[in-house]
Amino acid sequence: MAHQIALNFEDGATRIIAARDGETVADAAYRLGINIPLDCRDGACGTCKCKVEAGRYDGGSYIEDALSEDEAAQGFALACQMRPGSDVVVAIAATAAQCKTRPQSFDTRLVSVRRLSATTIGFSLERPEGLAFLPGQYVNIQVPGSDAQRSYSFSSAPDAATLEFLVRDIPGGQMSGWLRDVAQPGDAVRFTGPSGSFYLRDVSRPVLFLSGGTGLAPFLSMLGRLSANLSDHPVHLVHGVTNDADLVEIEALEAAAARMPFFSFTTCVSSETSTHPRLGYVTNHLAAEQLNAGDIDIYLCGPPPMVDAVRSWLQGQGITPASFHTEKFAASGPAVKQAA
Questions:
Q1: Distances from the Cα of 52 to the Cαs of 49, 71, 192, 215, 294, in angstroms?
Q2: Cα–Cα distance for residue pair 218/199, rounded to 1 Å
Q3: What's the CA gap between 34 and 36, in Å, rounded?
Q4: What are the tens digits of pLDDT across the range 301-314?
Q5: pTM for the full model?
Q6: Residue-range definition of the domain harbouring residue 323
Q7: Per residue in 174-220, pLDDT tens?
Q8: What is the count of structural domains for the chain?
């Protein structure tokens, strides 16, 4: 049975390839012109050592000098010996350029623009042929009519027919200004990616999602994946925003909670003038049972101050999560045109 292999490179680029039945990761990569580190092909040198971040696989045969028992127990494998038993995610110890590949570029078209609130815009693109991504990853979208690029996480599930994104509408924002004042369905759009190591891993324990503002987008994508795969463990989201107008896509969260009994969510607003029933920051609304004494996987996406504050708060509580995945973002103002 063929499986998908997501190759994550050190520079953040991701390539998703298909492995033939019984094919090793190295053979699948080289067949498609991706020259990941490799030397002996016999499990003897360790040059192709990689970290398997998700999925099942047969590690094959190799000698101790190439891969120790401790390394194998930690999820390391040799690409020349590893055969996927499911879709897998593999971290390659090299950049995409070193492996003679590059981030993929796609040309597509705008489907629609949605005004979600006074501060937030949603937009969708046609899904180009050949695109595959992990739930939580992002792409770099070129602002039409300029050389500027903006990074946006997918808010749609990896198998969705169209690609969805959330954008904060800020004064002088080049992408938000184009979406607000210029964009029309059918307009040409180009993007590069996918990229990023912030994506949903296999769920093997309780999960806590923490989002701020449009940092909700990758979690919507993750929920789309969970809707298809389900979970034996509870998944809880705490979503915080600054003002009431920033609180969007609540209907999507309610729909997710209705179809997935293991999923629940809490929203909060930090502004003192808010009429929302829960005020303050996300850390004000974390219960002890949601932290599960540290036996939990935490995913956090929000502005840099929020990410730093949550990290400090967890340290202050003496909580060391089993895994802690973060992504920082900042809204972009007027873009500086890149040199030709």
A1: 10, 11, 24, 26, 23
A2: 8
A3: 6
A4: 999 999 999 999 99
A5: 0.85
A6: 207-328
A7: 999 999 999 999 999 999 989 888 999 889 999 999 999 999 999 99
A8: 3
